[in-house]
Every structure is written in C-alpha cells, then in structure tokens.
Amino acid sequence: MADELKTSERFPDPAKTIAQFSVLETWGKSAGGNPIYAKRFTSGDRRVLFIGGVHGNETEGVAATLGFFNEFIAGDKIPATGSDLLFIPVLSPDGFLACSRHNGNAVDLNRNMATKDWKKNERGEKYYSGPAANSEPETQLLLRVLEEFKPGFILSLHSWKPMFNVNGPAHVYAEKMRSQLAYEITEDIGYPTPGSLGTYAGWERQIPTITFEIERGLPLAEVYPTVRGALLAVL
Ligand SMILES: [Zn+2]
User: Fold this and answer.
1) Alpha-carbon distance 135 to 46, whole Å?
2) Which residue of 77, 89, 216, 231 has the fewest C-beta atoms within 10 A of its own C-beta?
3) The pLDDT of residue 42 is above 90
4) Residues spanned by the domain of 188
5) What gap in Å lies between CA 154 and CA 183, rounded to an integer?
C-alpha cells in the first residue's frame, strides 16, 4: 500500500503559479537562477517558519501554500495568525518548474543540510545530497533564515503517506494539527533522512519541526480545503 502511492498531480502551468508569489519579496536565487520568494508577516511573537516546495514534485505542498497565499496574502490581506510568520511558499522553484524532486543541480535539498549524519550520495541518485553539505543556494538561504529569524516552530510541507512527522519537541504541534485532520503522528518516517531539515533543525537543534506529509495524489483542488484547519491550528 505505502509503496503504491499515486504520483502528485501537476500544476498545468507551474511558471504561472510561481509568478503569483512574486508579490512577496525575493530572498534568494535557486541553483537554476530562479527567484525564491518569501515574506515575513508579523502579528505576534511566535516565530514560525512555514515552507512549501522543498521537493518540487510534491505539488500537494505547493497547493497548500498557494491556498494559504490566496486566502490570506493576495490582495494585501495580512495573515493575522498571531505569529511572526516567515512564509516561503516554494523553496525549490527549479524543482517545482520541472516537477522534479531535485534542484537545478540535481540535488535533493532535503539531504543537503549539514547534519551530523550527512552522507554523500552520487549524482543521479534519488537522494543525491550534493557535492558537500550546504552546497546549494536554497540550503544556504534556509540556514540564513534559521540563524537570523530563529524560528520557534517549523512547518515544512511535503507529500507522501499522510502523516505528521515529528522532528524534535514538536508533539504538541502535531496534536493540534491532528485535532483538525486525522493523520498519523510519527517520529519515524520509516527510513533515515540524513541532511534533512527535520534532522538538522528538529533533532539536532531542538527546534520543534513538523514535516507534514500531505496525502500524495490528492487532487490539487482538494488539498487546501483538506489541510487548512491543520495549518491554521499551528501557524
Ligand atoms: Zn518530500
């Protein structure tokens, strides 16, 4: 069952989707030279980092950040979530544009962070971790955000088997999300993830981090209505 997960639905025009986010700020450039959009919305003290599109082929995550964007940000509505929210809707524009897990250097960005167990995989592999830890501009942007913004909670959207993957002391957040969406809560995604954000920030730095695995294959139009309550419970 778990191995038979449907592939993600593609956005018909990913360039147009990305362009919607250009009303945010440009915080960096991807390996392929595409802008990485982000913006901080402050309506309280809780510093929350909200990221989508680390893996560009997991389009459910971008459907969710896009839904949030459309409801709260487009048209100059500032999300009054009571938090100090840093929103990065698509960390890997290269991957999103190509509907690929990898950035423009063929790197899996969720294997590129300098965790203690960082492991070099070869180019061409699904989990290619890059020539060195932190080699990729997307990872460097994320590191800068961790060091300067200092999030107290991180929510990163992916898609796979539906679950709230808890990294570090994030159980309280997972329970809040599960009160809105009946997904499994687990600390163990089922395989090692050296170089991942969850390992780097959650386990090694004890920043509560949820890797939100949205059900893969969910029709894009259904994603935001499905996850909205869970997102708003913690953002
Ligand atoms: Zn992923």
Assistant:
1) 30
2) 77
3) yes
4) 2-164+175-232
5) 18
Q: Is residue 169 part of a domain?
A: no
What's the 16 CA to ligand 1 centre distance in angstroms?
22
- The pair of structure tokens assigned to 90 is 């698509």
Q: Is the pLDDT of residue 76 over 80?
A: no
Name the one residue in this structure whose structure tokens are 């997972």. 174
The CA 55 to ligand 1 mean position distance, Å, reads 5
Determine, yes or no, domain membership for 45: yes
Name the domain count of the chain.
1
The overall pTM is greater than 0.70: yes
- What is the C-alpha separation between 203 and 214, in angstroms, rounded? 21
Least confident of 51-65, 73-87, 89-103: 73-87
Question: pLDDT band at residue 80, thresholds of 50, 70 and 90?
Answer: confident
197 CA → ligand 1 middle, Å: 11
| Confidence check: pLDDT of 56 > 60 | yes
Q: How far is the CA of 176 from the centre of ligand 1 (A)?
A: 22
> Which pair of structure tokens corresponds to residue 197?
């954000």
Instruction: Quote the ligand 1 centre to 110 CA distance (angstroms).
Output: 7
Place of tokens 């048209």: 75
